[in-house]
Amino acid sequence: MPKQTKPHSRQKALYRVKNWSEYDKALVQRGSITFWLSDRFEKNWLYTGEKQRGSQFDYSDKAIEIMLTVKEVFHLTNRQTEGFMRSLFAMLKIGLPVPDHSTLSKRGKKLKVNLPKKTNQSLNIVMDSTGLKIYGEGEWKVRQHGVSKRRTWRKLHVGANPEDGEIQAVLLTENSVSDDEAAEALLAQIEPEIDKFAADGAYDKRKVYDSLNAHSPDVDILIPPRKNARIWKHGNTKAERLKRDENLRSIRKHGRKEWKEKSGYHVRSLAETAMFRLKTIFGDELSARLIETQTTQALIRCAALNKMTHLGMPHAYKLA
After folding, report:
1. Does pTM surpass 0.85?
2. Tens digits of per-residue pLDDT, 4-29?
3. How far is CA 77 from CA 131, 171, 285, 305, in A?
C-alpha cells in the first residue's frame, strides 16, 4: 500500500518593517523614565483642589497616575514604586514628597484614568475581550480539588482602532459578563462616528446591533452570524433589510470564507493583536485585590499602551 503523504501546510506570509529606524527609537523611548514624567509634573504634583470632608488629599490625581504608570511599565510593586520614586527625586534634587504604598492603594480605588487619544475623526473599531488572572489560590486549588467557586480572573473588554492600534474604549468586568453585554458601555466611550465595526460571533446579538446603529447610523457592521443563525427580518417584509441578515444571506450563498475575504472581516484579528501587546508588555495578571483597584490597573495599562503607540508603530509590507 503506497505511503500517504501529508498535505503541505500553507506557508506563513513574511513581512518586513520599512520604518525600522524610527520604530527602534520608539522602543528605546518606552524605557525612558523622563518620558513617563510630564514636563510640568512638579507643578501638578500636590493636590490643589476643593476641600473635602475628613482628611485632605496631599497629592493630585496626576501624581497618583504617574506613580501607578511607573509601577505598571517597570513591573514594580507599590512599595518598590515608592522606593524607586524617592531615590529618583533624591538624585534629581526634587524637593517633593512621594506618596507611600498605602496612599497608592487607597487612591487607586477611585482614580479616574482618561485614555490618551489622537483620533478625533470617524474611525474603524475592532472589539474583543480577554481574561486576566487575579490574586488568589487559583490554578493550584483547581488542580488539587477540582473547580473552584472563587472567581480567579477578570475579563478585559477592549475596542481599538485597527489602523493605528490606539485603544478607544476599555471595560473590566467579572468573568460572567459576556462580550455582547459589554458592547454598549464600550461604545459609550467612543465619541467619533464609527465607519466600520468588526467583532467575532459572540457579538451577534440584537442589542449590539441596536447600540451600534444608535451610535453611528451608517456603520458597516462585520459580525459573522453563528452557524445556526436564522434570518431576523425576512425579505418579503416592507421594512428595510438588516445588514446582519444580508451578511447571513451572503454566507449561505458564497460560504463563510469568501464572505470574510470580500467584506474585510479579517481586520478583526487586529483586536487580538492589541490584546497580545497588552499581555506581552504588562503580563496577564492583575496584582490588585479589589475590582475597583483592578479596574484602575487595567486602565493605567491601556493608557500607557496608547502612549507607547503614539511614540511609533512598525509599518510592515508583505514580501513577494
Report:
1. yes
2. 555 555 677 787 888 889 999 999 99
3. 21, 23, 13, 19
